[in-house]
Amino acid sequence: MITGKITSLHVTDVRFPTSLEQHGSDAMHTDPDYSAAYVVIETDVTDGLKGHGLTFTLGKGTEIVVCAVKALSGHVVGKSLEEIVNDFRHFYRQLTSDSQLRWIGPEKGAVQLAAAAVLNAVWDLWAKKEKKPLWKLLVDMNPQQLVSCIDFRYITDALTEEEALEILQNGKQGQTVREVQMLKSGYPAYTTSCAWLGYPDEQLKKLCSDALKEGWTRFKVKVGADLKDDNRRCELIRGMIGSDNLMMLDANQRWDVNEAITWVKELAKFKPIWIEEPTSPDDILGHATISKAIAPLNIGVATGEQCHNRVMFKQFLQARALQFLQIDSCRLGSVNENLSVLLMAKKFNIPVCPHAGGVGLCELVQHLILFDYISVSGSLDNRMCEYVDHLHEHFKYPVVINDAAYMPPKDPGYSTEMTEESVLKYQFPSGEVWQNLLKESTNV
Ligand SMILES: C[C@H](O)[C@@H](O)CC(=O)C(=O)O
Ligand SMILES: [Mg+2]
Prior knowledge:
- Belongs to the mandelate racemase/muconate lactonizing enzyme family. ENOSF1 subfamily.
- By secondary structure, the protein is α/β, with parallel strands linked by helices.
- It is 43% helix and 13% strand.
- Helix 11 links the parallel strand 6 and strand 7.
- Helix 1 packs across helix 4 (109-129).
């Protein structure tokens, strides 16, 4: 039995100055400071049980998400965990559809990122209470319980509750074998760390050569700002990784639809398997046009890192506008909404290849993709999870990568907890790191 009330919710603006070294740079986001609105919920349970959650941001604007988290806190403080998880669908809807706050969403933008941070903390709390890593909590739940966490509003034309139940019931077959397989070999990953757009060629070469030695076989390359530059960088990387390894391209929304088609045709000679975010993340029909035009080149469209809710994903699937679906643990409304998207992807037979990286996204999304393989898709065909090698040292339970695969976390929770030292040091603007940077900039 789950006892204990949530007594408080704290949120902190934590920023890492990654832009100083161009980590995370792409054709649209040229100077990201990987950041998080970091939430801690406390309970009155005597053992000091706490839940930790976050959502990922790029620096400026984190203060807006922090405000939105504070605006949502009234829905959480005073409730017991038992009350929440016994009717999780209802709680989820309270948060994502607050009758006043929804005007500045609904289910999108800063308010949706804030809902994700809060809900991620609640899921962490639940998993810790059950003394299981989150993926295992999900795997052990029965189909009815899982379905009771999902808000089916707006998606029943694509996936009904009955269909979701059937998928989950079928997923129980062979679950134990797949769990054992994951514990032994892990979930296959690809790396984005070698080819950020702002890295000079020498750095690309060094990072590729190191990654190859570590056993990486799948590489994502940032493109989209300058075609000549893309040709040079892709040639360099294809040369380094050889013809057997996989290459993916990511344009981060830089192009118009026709421009995307022309550009991808030019880069097709490097044999990428997908082009990610070729155009506006909201342009579902544009993605469908691009998908159709580049299908003869054996290149698919991947998208999702800025797809803010299940309704968008539903339409992408219905319009056949993506061939690789990229869930995000912090963009969608936490585990609840990710569950609905994983189930829709299964129904439409589209592989899920999660977006990760940022700060904490690898830590979180590994739980979701493990659950997807063990209990939903049951397949590794055309599937892999993104990995980026930054900022893991700030987490209490950092990801473990073994031979280019995510090894299932064993610690209870959602791997969301940051070290207290890092939170203090990188808190914006009062943390030591930012105070020093601000001093330096005023001295120049
Ligand atoms: C701004 C982020 O680093 C973005 O480039 C990440 C991304 O597109 C990806 O990991 O994929
Ligand atoms: Mg991307």
